[in-house]
Amino acid sequence: MLSKTQVKYIQSLFHKKFRDEHGRFIVEGPKMVSEALLHAPKDIEQIYALSSWITEMNVSTIPITEVPAFEMEKISSLSTASPALAILRKPVQQRPASVNGITLVLDTIQDPGNLGTIIRTAEWFGVQQIICSEGTADCYNPKVIQSTMGSIFRMPVFYEDIMEWVGQCKDIPVLATSLDGEPMKPGRPGRDLVVVIGNESAGIRPALQAMATQRWLIPRHGEAESLNAAVATGIMLYALTT
Amino acid sequence: MLSKTQVKYIQSLFHKKFRDEHGRFIVEGPKMVSEALLHAPKDIEQIYALSSWITEMNVSTIPITEVPAFEMEKISSLSTASPALAILRKPVQQRPASVNGITLVLDTIQDPGNLGTIIRTAEWFGVQQIICSEGTADCYNPKVIQSTMGSIFRMPVFYEDIMEWVGQCKDIPVLATSLDGEPMKPGRPGRDLVVVIGNESAGIRPALQAMATQRWLIPRHGEAESLNAAVATGIMLYALTT
């Protein structure tokens, strides 16, 4: 049995305020807990799981608490309660590295599903690192973690003053998607690149647009007003890496 | 004041069973209701809205019921209750047209957000029509409608036995995305094309894979296991239309 205090503590980690306060975050679902065991075993502080999961996984190096199904339902944020939930220590925030390949800069991506999908897509295309504006969703939000499908454990994500960060990227091409940019052409303007993706409805803030060395429009053939931010990211990265 | 029966009726339309039974669906949110007024005014049966929305929009041709904020909260499915909600008649289901340009075939896309984003992306790239397998999410699901950002009113979507439908597409190239396909190359194998997108985790069913004339892998440069279905659709359509 979990104590009331334990349940309350776990539930608190679904909120950014308490994740920041405790320096912990939650990973749920058999696939994501397996990814954590594989890629971030040292960051796992504690696992709560059904006895069936414990028997099947046979993990010996990490503290595991057996929890009955009705209690997993209490602590899970998923619509179908997960058989396992892990509490992880948040990695100590480092500073971004110098650009070496493609760095993705996100200006206020607010939807957690979009952010998770962007992190997953960035990993597929071999992006070096992602730098998020402070208004971007928290990458330790459970919905973000879920949508990354494990890429959260492999893709470096930073939160920075993006105006300042982009400002110090001298001599590196800065590409921005923009509905009033030039139609995108295949080809890559340099080995090292910064690619900026804008907010779901407002796009990239004008001061940051102004810092872009190239503004690209993904060619449009129909009536739709805009593309989803994660879809636009995928198309940009495909075009740049092909 | 709405009667209990009215509230119950509106809430019932959040479920496919009742949408099918009543032949109606719901459109919520100022942007989406505006899109409905612009692109499908004849299908709107009734609008429920706050007095502020009614004054601002000044719609005279459609029955509107003024509803106080606390009642909008009852009938809205959005986390922040919408100022307006419309009930629309579902269009009579037609049969798909012969392929003329790109037809998208969806094999069991289950996530409503993915389906909506795919419909929006398809419209951006000028896709002719979308044909969904019976296991695909209902395109009149409120989350699908929301994610289409209005494309639901302009993109023809059909539900068919996709095995049978693809089977009768003689002499038309059928492209499938596949993790064991050939790396995708720019270029379009024909003016008229069928592009198949598979389920989020299981991919395209083997019998349908076998009917594909070409199987393409989106080039991968990192560790991620797979791409989100909507992102993969966007990249395929970009590559085919560029």
How would you describe the overall organization of this protein?
2 copies of one chain form a homodimer. Chain A is built from 10 helices and 10 strands. Chain A has 242 residues and is α/β, with parallel strands linked by helices. In chain A, strands 7-6-5-9-8-10 form a 6-stranded parallel sheet, with helices on one face. In chain A, strand 5, helix 6 (112-124) and strand 6 form a beta-alpha-beta unit. The N and C termini of chain A lie far apart (54 Å). At the A-B interface, helix 6 and helix 10 of A face helix 6 and helix 10 of B.
Helix content of chain A: 25-40%
Largest interchain contact: A-B, 37 and 37 residues
Distance between the termini of chain A: 54 Å
- Strand adjacency order, main sheet of chain A: 7-6-5-9-8-10
User: What's the alpha carbon Rg of chain A, rounded to whole Å?
Assistant: 20 Å
Summarize the structure.
The structure is a homodimer of 242-residue chains. With 242 residues, the first copy, chain A, is of the alpha/beta class.
